[in-house]
Amino acid sequence: MHAEITSNNKTYPVKFGMAALSEFLDSEGLSLSQMEAIGQNLTLTRAIKLVHIGLKHGARVAGKDFENNFEDTCDLLDADPELMNKVLQVFQSQMPQPEKGNAKSPQKRAK
């Protein structure tokens, strides 16, 4: 499943699944254990790469062509200053969230 965002009256699918994450981590020389720190150490170049990869994999999952290169993605971001925020919100929403505490799921009551 992918999300869709709108930028300059055009809709783009966005997806941050395992393929997108592995591509991003490999391109940046990061390990899986460094995932949580990405938001704290996100340079502009890394943020643009993350946007680019999310758009690329969103198009792949949606069955659409994606021929943009890195510079084309930069141009999209120049045309819509809110695009990066929109894509990064999708990134946050599609990342697994750590469980809070050891709360157990409610037990079904026997009747």
Features:
111 residues, mainly alpha, two-stranded antiparallel sheet, 2 strands, globular, disordered C terminus
Q: How is the main sheet built?
A: 2 strands, antiparallel
Distance between the first and last residues' Cα: 38 Å
Query: Could you report the average pLDDT, rounded to the nearest whole number?
Result: 86
Strands side by side in the biggest sheet: 1-2
Instruction: Kindly name the structural category.
Output: mainly alpha
The total domain count is 1
Radius of gyration: 17 Å
Shape: globular
**Percent of sequence in beta strands:** 5-15%
Helicity level, as a percent range?
Answer: 40-55%
Describe it for me?
This protein is mainly alpha-helical and 111 residues long. It has one domain (3-94). It contains 4 helices and 2 strands. The chain has helices at residues 18-28, 44-62, 70-79, 83-94, and strands spanning 3-7, 10-14. Strands 1-2 form a two-stranded antiparallel sheet. The longest helix is centred in the middle third of the chain and has 19 residues, at 44-62. The radius of gyration is 17 Å and the shape is globular. Residues 102-111 have low confidence and may be disordered.
Outline the secondary-structure elements:
Layout: E1 3-7, E2 10-14, H1 18-28, H2 44-62, H3 70-79, H4 83-94
Antiparallel strand pairs: 1-2
Helix pairs in contact: 1-2, 2-3, 2-4
Describe this structure in a few short sentences.
The chain has about 110 residues and is mainly alpha-helical. The chain is about 45% helix and about 10% strand.
